[in-house]
Specification:
Structural class: alpha+beta
Number of strands: 4
Radius of gyration: 31 Å
Oligomer: single chain
Number of helices: 10
């Protein structure tokens, strides 16, 4: 196969269908950028889960004197010193418990004032309205229900709460956004494939005279199809390269500069550049192979060689 002939045919095809080629590049770039973004979003959610689930505690809130009138679980009155000692001792006996921290009403009041000092209720709440609690650090946060089953309903215990539930809504939102991005990516991918197939067919039709002559002189099917396949692959590769640039620019402006989420949300453990760079070869590979395969399938039916 003469490489010079194939390259010249690629150039001719791209020039003849410049507008459609540009549309293919844009659609492939958008679909692959969404694909890469969805992969990064999924990795971000996983990183945040690993980071935060390792830090959250199970909180066992104890009854105070004010809970007796409002909570049926505290009908017997405020927790006693003996009940607190027994709860703490039982917690420390459990293999799944890593650490137990007791928080008094004064400490709870201090923490509340630090976190919600700007709210109206912070100015009227008093220490005796706060609840004592045990903050329980587990070796495996997934085993929260073991603690809940053992201590919920005990005398002196008002409630057992898993702090993971506070974060779950955020993770559910991010997962929903990820699914939406994948849906839009699928739609863009279908549009890109349709454009690729149409571009290849138009290119093949405009050069039907040349392909007819090549068929008469005994050129193989692969030799005839190769310029069209490489045109589509080249356009897809350009689209993949644009998608890679979009992912890099997006990471730069969203997290490091511009919006600078890393500075505004310092408690969030954002994915690093290594995670973005690891996805780029996959994006380029899909950008190259997807159009080439689509063109190959379309040509087998259209050229009938």
């Amino acid at each position: 196969m003469r490489a010079q002939f194939v390259l010249s045919e690629i150039g001719v095809g791209l020039r003849r269908n410049l507008t459609m080629t540009f549309a293919v590049i844009v659609s492939v770039a958008l679909s692959l950028a969404l694909f890469g973004g969805a992969l990064l979003m999924r990795e971000q959610v996983s990183t945040m889960k690993d980071y935060w689930y390792d830090k959250v505690n199970v909180s066992i809130f104890l009854c105070n004197k004010n809970d007796a009138a409002t909570s049926p679980k505290c009908a017997k009155g405020a927790v006693t010193a003996q009940q607190k000692e027994q709860i703490e001792a039982d917690l420390k006996k459990m293999d799944i418990v890593e650490k137990v921290i007791h928080e008094s009403t004064d400490e709870a009041y201090k923490h509340y004032k630090e976190q919600y000092s700007d709210t109206a209720i912070a100015s009227v709440i008093t220490p005796d309205q706060m609840q004592e609690s045990f903050r329980v650090k587990l070796h495996d946060p997934e085993k929260y229900k073991v603690v809940a089953t053992a201590f919920a309903g005990r005398d002196g215990v008002e409630s057992v709460q898993d702090q993971r539930n506070i974060l779950q809504n955020l993770f559910d939102l991010m997962n929903g956004m990820n699914i939406a991005a994948l849906g839009v990516m699928g739609l863009m991918l279908v549009i890109a494939l349709m454009l690729i197939v149409n571009t290849v067919r138009v290119s093949a039709f405009s050069r039907r005279r040349e392909t007819g002559i090549m068929r008469l002189v005994g050129a193989s099917s692969f030799y005839i199809q190769m310029p069209f396949i490489m045109e589509a692959a080249f356009a897809g590769l350009l689209g993949g390269a644009v998608a890679c640039v979009m992912l890099l620019v997006g990471r730069y402006f969203l997290i490091d500069h511009g919006i600078a989420l890393a500075e505004k949300m310092q408690l969030v453990n954002f994915i690093g550049w290594d995670a973005v760079l690891a996805k780029l070869p996959l994006v380029l590979a899909i950008g190259l192979l997807m159009p080439a395969l689509a063109a190959f399938v379309a040509l087998r039916k259209y050229l009938k060689v």
